[in-house]
Amino acid sequence: xxxxxxxxxxxxxxxxxxxxxxxxxxxxxxxxxxxxxxxxxxxxxxxxxxxxxxxxxxxxxxxxxxxxxxxxxxxxxxxxxxxxxxxxxxxxxxxxxxxxxxxxxxxxxxxxxxxxxxxxxxxxxxxxxxxxxxxxxx
Length: 138
Hints:
Elements: H1 5-23, H2 26-30, E1 34-43, E2 46-48, E3 50-55, E4 60-65, E5 67-72, E6 78-83, E7 90-94, E8 97-98, H3 100-119, E9 124-125, E10 129-133
Parallel strand pairs: 1-10
Antiparallel strand pairs: 1-2, 1-5, 3-4, 3-6, 6-7, 8-9
């Protein structure tokens, strides 16, 4: 019986490389490029109504807080600007954070897979619930 160890190694490496590239961009397939965000403006543990808009480098969304709405994901911060009755306008930022799918992809697909997820705006998500303390209540 003949043994071909020199053929087994290239086949094993080819399989590993195929799996790594096949899993690259995993979050791009598992996650959408939009997400639901809930924003509440708070003052002394009570919600305050305010006219607001949220924007990032992909779009702008108007709403009356408290509200839930769908935003397009981006690697840039989500700037939320609000104005409550008899107060000045103010802005806060929500930074996107890596998703679990992107973290797993970083392990399985390496930096290339994570870069694909960021490029496709699927590897980073904003916080689902954003509670803003009204500046007059600090």
